[in-house]
């Protein structure tokens, strides 16, 4: 019982210190550091409506062609969807993503589904896609670098990047009213 109480006390102190540092850093930081704080706050789930710049990436699709997030900047928003073949919830949420695609076409919003790697190989993803085809791009993050950069702690994770290149939504569910983020 004492070790559980000690752990709670440590976590409470750690969170208080982290919050204080973020508050002081934000108050006295130059603009670039303030932006970094906003990115960190966004990834920690603080201020879900706050905008923060998306981290650019380039990953291969299943055909081996490279896809870069910044290619869509100024053109259209991008829904980045982190998933894995072995994740049952990722499979169960696919119909919702399909319905979202039916409501919002590729000219209005791009969908990039990033496989987080781990125990998935590109061959396994290709086999999975043959049995579960989708109408959006599947990208492979074999080393998990992009998942780490985006602070992915659990999957599925949906990150909506607006046309200007800012993260405007982050959650384990796709946005229920995606249109409010598209303009």
Structural features, described:
By secondary structure, this protein is α/β, with parallel strands linked by helices. It has 2 domains: 1-48, no CATH class; 51-182, Glutaredoxin (3-Layer(aba) Sandwich). 41% of the residues lie in helices and 19% in strands. It is built from 6 helices and 8 strands. The strands form 2 sheets. Strands 1-8-7-4-5-6 form a 6-stranded mixed beta sheet. The longest helix is centred in the N-terminal third of the chain and has 27 residues, at 2-28. It is globular, with a radius of gyration of 18 Å. It starts with a helix and ends with a helix.
**SS summary, helix count:** 6
Query: Which percent range describes the beta-strand content?
Result: 15-25%
Q: How many beta-strand elements?
A: 8
Output the CATH class name of the largest domain.
Alpha Beta
Structural class: alpha/beta
Which whole number gives the mean pLDDT? Answer: 82
CATH superfamily of the largest domain: Glutaredoxin
Strand order of the largest sheet: 1-8-7-4-5-6
Cα-to-Cα separation, first versus last residue: 52 Å
């Amino acid at each position: 019982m004492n070790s559980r109480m000690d752990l709670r006390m440590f976590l409470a102190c750690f969170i208080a210190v982290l919050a204080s540092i973020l508050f002081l850093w934000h108050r006295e930081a130059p603009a670039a550091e303030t932006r970094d704080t906003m990115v960190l706050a966004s990834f920690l789930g603080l201020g879900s409506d706050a905008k923060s710049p998306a981290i650019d990436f380039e990953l291969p699709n299943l055909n081996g062609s490279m896809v870069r997030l910044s290619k869509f900047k100024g053109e259209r928003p991008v829904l980045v969807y982190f998933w894995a073949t072995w994740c049952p919830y990722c499979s169960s949420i696919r119909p919702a993503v399909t319905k979202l695609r039916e409501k919002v076409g590729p000219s209005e919003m791009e969908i990039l589904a990033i496989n987080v790697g781990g125990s998935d190989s590109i061959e396994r993803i290709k086999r999975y896609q043959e049995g579960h085809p989708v109408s959006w791009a599947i990208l492979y993050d074999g080393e998990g670098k992009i998942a780490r950069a985006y602070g992915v702690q659990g999957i599925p994770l949906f990150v909506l990047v607006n046309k200007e290149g800012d993260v405007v939504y982050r959650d384990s569910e796709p946005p229920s009213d995606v249109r409010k983020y598209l303009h």
